[in-house]
């Protein structure tokens, strides 16, 4: 019985860790690698911190219910084990759901930009190393329906070719 409780706890932990994905603009998914992306120039109008709500896929609740039910069913005699097992399953489901939501919640930033044609767009992305201030030149990189905002690279002015020396006329 103890082995079953340990296995159930490990399953809950694996689900919680597996739910820790990111939407960071600094992390590019495998499906976006080696794909041609569309790049659009823009200027930041405003940025503000936001929180991306966590997922509730039901996996956390299901795993918590199993773990709580198994743990509760090992308490007392046969009748008590059944009652405590049901209570453990309910409590485990609630806790598992809360754990899933909190582990998939993410600090983010909403960036309002203006394109060169005057259109305005808003992009929400995970908080990253870059900060965006009003007036900052940025680029919007679109790949497969996903968009990320990053600072526009500095463009060096073209290097002037040296003037050709002319020979004096005779």
UniProtKB/TrEMBL annotation:
InterPro entries tied to this protein: Gly-zipper
Coiled-coil parts of chain: none
Residue ranges constituting the Glycine zipper domain according to the UniProt record: 59-101
Key words, A-Z: Signal
Signal peptide residue numbers: 1-18
Protein name as annotated: Glycine zipper domain-containing protein
Native source species: Rubrivivax rivuli
């Amino acid at each position: 019985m103890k082995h079953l409780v340990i296995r159930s706890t490990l399953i809950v932990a694996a689900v919680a860790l597996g739910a820790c994905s990111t939407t960071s603009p600094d992390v590019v998914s495998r499906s976006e690698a080696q794909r041609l992306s569309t790049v659009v120039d823009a200027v930041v109008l405003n940025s503000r911190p936001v929180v991306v709500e966590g997922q509730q896929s039901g996996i956390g609740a299901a795993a918590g219910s199993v773990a709580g039910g198994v743990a509760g069913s090992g308490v007392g005699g046969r009748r008590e084990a059944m009652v405590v097992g049901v209570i453990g399953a309910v409590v485990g489901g609630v806790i598992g759901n809360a754990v899933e939501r909190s582990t998939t919640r993410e600090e983010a930033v909403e960036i309002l930009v203006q394109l060169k044609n005057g259109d305005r767009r808003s992009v929400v992305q995970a908080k990253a190393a870059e900060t965006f201030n009003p007036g900052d030149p940025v680029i919007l990189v679109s790949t497969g329906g996903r968009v990320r905002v990053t600072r526009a690279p500095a463009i060096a002015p073209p290097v002037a070719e040296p003037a050709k020396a002319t020979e004096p006329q005779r």
